[in-house]
Design brief:
heterodimer; A: alpha+beta; Cytochrome p450; five-stranded mixed sheet; 45% helix; B: Enolase-like, domain 1; 3 domains; six-stranded antiparallel sheet; 22% helix; globular; FAD (chain B); FAD-oxidoreductase/Apoptosis (chain B); FAD-dependent oxidoreductase (chain B); Reductase_C (chain B)
């Protein structure tokens, strides 16, 4: 067996807690062809260039058909579970993308239609955060993921979309099952990962059926939230078809909290690893705004994206990406590129000119970014202010399997108490 | 002491004890002042502005302010840091004596400087007939006060607004009128709106967009005269084609005039196109020799641009004011080899008729245009401009997120036409003439102007006024 490339090593579960040394190796070849024909882009400048290049497609349907029997381990991508749905706004191109995103924006944060939609959520966010921290009173050990990072975003996204919170246990299980089955590395070929696939397909299907049912209910009887609004009012671009509506509703629900959970968990973890930064933030609460940007750069919630491909030959960084080749843009590596960020492995809450890739760039810039920022600023800011003497119990903590949506499974922290 | 140690001491001393005067208290003036402090300049700083207001942001004046969303006095520019300056607001600079290094103010005061930053910008060109311009209901739009007055006039629901001039300001105001459901006529001397800035091909799209939104658009005509009623209120305009337009609000959107009159006799290279300077913001004197103590930034500056055959560019754009001022400020408190160039790729945006128009590069430099992405029919597209086989500019209608791609191509002097996109291709992707008006054809002066140095072109004759 040939030696594994830095990219393949970065994807191994054993390296999930710290893929950065492999990214550094990877950046020596900014655009690196992998054995399966995928081109992995790891440097900031090249990522940004390709994010803005109209010869790059994000459409899953334009990905080349993969070889049915992989010649070598890791050659088989596991995107089929996603492909069963119609493309959502991350996995399609203009003009389709533009119509759909416009229609969704209309009901999310886009002035003049809904200018206060996000900012009006702040009191709710603060109330939920306060409640979660109040609930930790009397405890000496907490799990930041289960008790703090997860409940806030999931409660919020249910409210924003109009998904009943009582359905959380069901959709949580479906999403977990699907995420745990997705693997782009050498371990994809393992017995274990292969056995997860069927379950993942079933879960995605059930999640889609659940959404379809909910959208159907809203079609008959309008209710609060974005889903109902999207069913009834498409704006000038017209309403989305049912299939497109379902896949985007699934996307909003899932991406609307998973990434935020990981960001909050990673933020707390990172601050506990950098006591001087934590102390600085405690002394100067206003720093939370640039701090969240730096934390997003430091531990990006979306490490890379996997649905892009070249539609034409693209010359870049001394390489030609041939038409048809899949392209992975590794945001997590670009965010640690020393050519762009001075001393990139250092956490600097006041980092100047911090145009990170944590939300991507270009037309697929994170749809939920304004909501995520508000949530994470409130959550991390209040955690730092209120939790007395937090100490990491296990470092590194156990990680979830997923490579794209990288985050800790649990972050155990010992505490002395909760301030008012 | 060695020469370099002496120079270093000089720079240190100037940064601590020097006197800097900034003339112009708008975007470039403010950002220049902030940049000076950021650079570690702790000497005395004086900012002179002819308007009584602290620096404010102009782009909203023709949009959000006129729509009534934002009051005109709520447009103050955000401050990035303390500037600890002496502000001389509401008093214009009226003269510059470079021999004694003093700025003369309208109230007679003389303000001494060691280094001077000229950021006096432009003003709106007024309706040429003073009696007609004085009629009530005749407006121009450049300042906060202009915007407040015009907003009030629109809020009073005039029976019809006449906009004279189809540049960006005129088109944006026509758009606001339609949004407020006020009848509006727009006259443009050229073949289409925006033709000076974006050429005839895009101008035709802009024209159709205006007509679709109910603007009574009249191209190829000019306004011969304005007529008022007995009370001195404007009532109608007579056009060059013999027709008349009844209107009780008239906006003269005739482009801008650079504020250089106060520099008469200063011996600087100041004239119709602004104040000539090098790419580091150092002003040229009348002989074309660079000065060491006078700097220029913002709308009033014109400098050679490497990407455009070193022709002199005057860029009346927001980011040019910001970045030009930062570069000038840096160079004011440094010496060679620490000078920085201002090599901005020009860019601008406009909002009108529900469409976000953005551009990078210098479209009027081009001879050809090609649609590259999206749909002209939906007014959601990107187009690239080329000159002799290289890309020099791009424009987008509701496609602004792609501009960075084109900016990159322009910076690399990439081939024109650019490679086709992988999806969302326009119906026609063949380069066609961009149809910029020939020099001398009357239209509004575009926001970016090439003022030329090509030896084959006739040189502008240069006559300082008042002599």
């Amino acid at each position: 067996m040939a030696e594994e490339t830095p990219w393949q090593q970065a994807l191994r579960y054993a390296n999930r807690a710290d893929p950065y040394p492999f990214y550094a190796e990877l950046r020596k070849t900014p655009v690196a062809r992998q054995p399966d024909g995928t081109y992995v882009v790891s440097t900031y400048r090249e990522i940004v260039t390709l994010l803005h290049d109209p010869r790059v497609s994000s459409d899953v349907r334009k990905l080349p058909a993969r070889a049915p029997a992989p010649a070598e381990p890791g050659a088989e991508p596991i995107t089929e579970a996603v492909i069963e749905l119609e493309p959502n706004i991350i996995t399609c191109d203009p003009p389709e993308h533009d119509h759909d995103r416009r229609t969704m924006t209309r009901h999310f944060f886009g002035p003049p239609h809904a200018p206060h939609q996000i900012s009006d959520l702040e009191p709710d966010i603060r109330r939920i955060v306060a409640g979660l921290l109040d609930g930790m009173r009397g405890k000496t050990r907490i799990d930041v993921v289960d008790e703090f990072a997860y409940p806030l975003p999931v409660t919020l996204i249910c409210k924003v979309l109009g998904v009943p919170l009582e359905d959380e246990p069901r959709f949580h299980a479906w999403i977990e099952t699907a995420l745990d089955a997705l693997d782009f590395g050498p371990e994809a070929a393992s017995e274990e990962m292969r056995s997860r696939l069927a379950g993942a397909r079933r879960s995605v299907k059930e999640l889609a059926q659940f959404m379809s049912g909910l959208l159907g209910q809203y079609a008959e009887r309008p209710g609060p939230g974005m889903l109902s609004a999207m069913v009834h009012d498409g704006g000038p671009d017209g309403r989305m078809s049912e299939g497109v509506l379902v896949s985007n509703a699934v996307l909003l629900l899932f991406a609307g909290h998973e990434t935020t959970v990981n960001l909050i968990a990673h933020s707390v973890l990172t601050l506990l690893r950098h006591p001087e930064a934590l102390e600085e933030l405690r002394r100067r609460p206003d720093l939370i705004v640039p701090a969240v940007e730096e934390l997003l750069r430091f531990e990006s919630s979306v490490q890379f994206w996997h649905t892009r491909s070249a539609v034409e030959d693209i010359d870049i960084a001394g390489t030609t990406i041939p038409a048809g080749a899949p392209i992975f843009l590794v945001y997590g590596s670009g965010n640690r590129d020393p050519e762009r960020f001075t001393d990139p492995d250092r956490l600097d809450l006041e980092r100047p000119d911090n145009e990170h890739l944590g939300f991507s760039q270009g037309i697929h810039f994170c749809f939920g970014a304004p909501l995520a920022r508000l949530e994470v600023q409130a959550a991390v800011g209040e955690f730092v202010r209120r939790v007395e003497n937090p100490r990491l119990v296990v470092d590194p903590p156990p990680y979830r399997h997923n490579q794209i949506f990288r985050g800790p499974r649990h972050v155990l922290v010992d505490i002395d108490g909760i301030r008012d | 002491m060695t020469l370099s140690a002496t120079l270093a001491e000089l720079v240190r001393d100037f940064r601590a004890n020097g006197r800097i005067v900034i003339v112009g208290a708008s975007l470039a003036g403010l950002r220049g002042a902030e940049a000076l402090r950021e650079e570690g300049f702790t000497g005395s700083l004086t900012i002179i502005g002819d308007e009584p207001y602290e620096p404010y942001d102009r782009p909203p004046l023709s949009k959000q302010v006129l729509k009534g969303w934002v009051p005109a006095d709520h447009t103050a520019l955000p401050r990035f840091r303390e500037v600890e300056a002496q502000w001389r607001l509401g008093v214009a600079a009226i003269g510059l004596d470079r021999a004694t290094k003093q700025v003369r103010l309208a109230d007679g005061e003389q303000v001494p400087y060691d280094r001077l930053l000229i950021a006096t910008g432009t003003r709106a060109r007024q309706w040429p007939d003073p009696a007609e311009a004085a009629l009530e209901g005749v407006f121009s739009l450049r300042s906060r006060d202009d915007a407040a007055r015009l907003q009030q006039a629109l809020a009073a629901r005039p029976s019809r607004v006449l906009v004279i001039g189809g540049g960006f300001i005129g088109s944006e105001v026509a758009s606001v009128c339609r949004e407020l459901d006020i009848p509006v006529t727009l006259t443009e001397r050229g073949s289409a709106p925006l033709v000076g800035a974006l050429g005839g091909v895009i101008g035709e799209i802009a024209a159709q967009m205006q007509r679709d939104h109910g603007v009574d658009l009249r191209c190829g005509v000019s306004v011969a005269s304005l007529e008022g009623d007995a009370a001195g209120h404007v009532r109608r305009a007579r056009l060059s084609d013999g027709t008349t337009v009844e209107a009780d609000v008239v906006l003269a959107a005739l482009g801008s005039i650079r504020n250089v009159e106060w520099l008469q006799g200063s011996g600087l290279a100041a004239g119709f196109w602004g104040v000539g300077c090098d790419a580091g913001g150092r002003a040229f004197d009348i002989n074309g020799v660079v000065t060491d103590s006078v700097y220029v930034a913002g709308d009033v500056a014109r400098a050679p641009h490497v990407l455009y055959e070193y022709q002199f560019l005057a860029m009346e754009h927001w980011d040019n004011a910001v970045f030009g001022a930062e570069v000038a400020a840096h160079n004011m408190v440094n010496l060679e080899p620490h000078y920085r160039p201002h090599l901005l790729l020009p860019g601008f945006w406009s909002g009108q008729f529900g469409v976000n128009i953005k551009s990078v590069g210098v479209p009027p430099f081009a001879d050809e245009i090609v649609f590259t992405q999206g749909s002209v029919k939906d007014r959601c597209f990107a187009a690239a401009y080329g000159r002799r086989g290289r890309i020099v500019a791009a424009v987008t209608f509701d496609h602004g997120k792609w501009l960075e791609y084109y900016a990159h191509l322009i910076e690399e002097s990439a081939a024109f036409p650019p490679p086709p996109p992988g999806w969302d291709r326009p119906d026609v992707m063949k380069p066609v003439p961009a149809e910029f008006p020939a020099p001398g054809v009357p239209t509004a002066i575009p926001d970016v102007v090439l003022t030329g140095h090509d030896p084959n072109e006739r040189r502008a004759e240069f006559r300082p006024r008042g002599h």
